Amino acid sequence: MYYRYSGAAPAPPKGATFAEARRRELQALVDTGEVTGLIGYLEGAPVGWVSLGPREHYAKLKRSPVMKPVDDQAVWSIVCFVVPAPYRGQGVARALLDGAIRYAKKRGVKLLEAYPVDKRGRSNDDFMWFGAKRMFDDAGFEEVARRKPNRPVVRIRPA
Question: Which helix (H) or strand (E) holds 97?
Answer without folding.
Answer: helix 92-106
